[in-house]
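General statements about sequence and structure are easier to judge against a single worked case. No coordinates are needed to read the tokens, only the vocabulary itself. The sequence in question and its structure tokens are set out directly beneath this paragraph.
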Amino acid sequence: MLFANGYFGFSASRAYYAMFYVAEALLIGKGVSFSRHSAISSAFGKYFVKTGIVSSKFHQYLIKGMEVRHAGDYGKARSVNSETAKEQIVNAEEFLNMGKQLLQVS
């Protein structure tokens, strides 16, 4: 809805948060939790990418998503264009599907 109404920065930010919360849930499943976004991203890489559980592209999605979120939430108005926002939404959908598989959620 945000994307469809031209709120590209906000839609990219929400896409990032979807990935962030999936990563956080996966880490909680491993018995670890962190309070900082950067710590969650780093731990996701350590526990899921370096161990071969998931492709490194998911870690890159999370890192890029955080960068775009900063631009969308704190940058100048219209600092995130429709193409970037759409890419983040597509990445978030893929990240969510990966999380569902790992968490065995339908």
The radius of gyration is 14 Å. The chain has a mean pLDDT of 92.
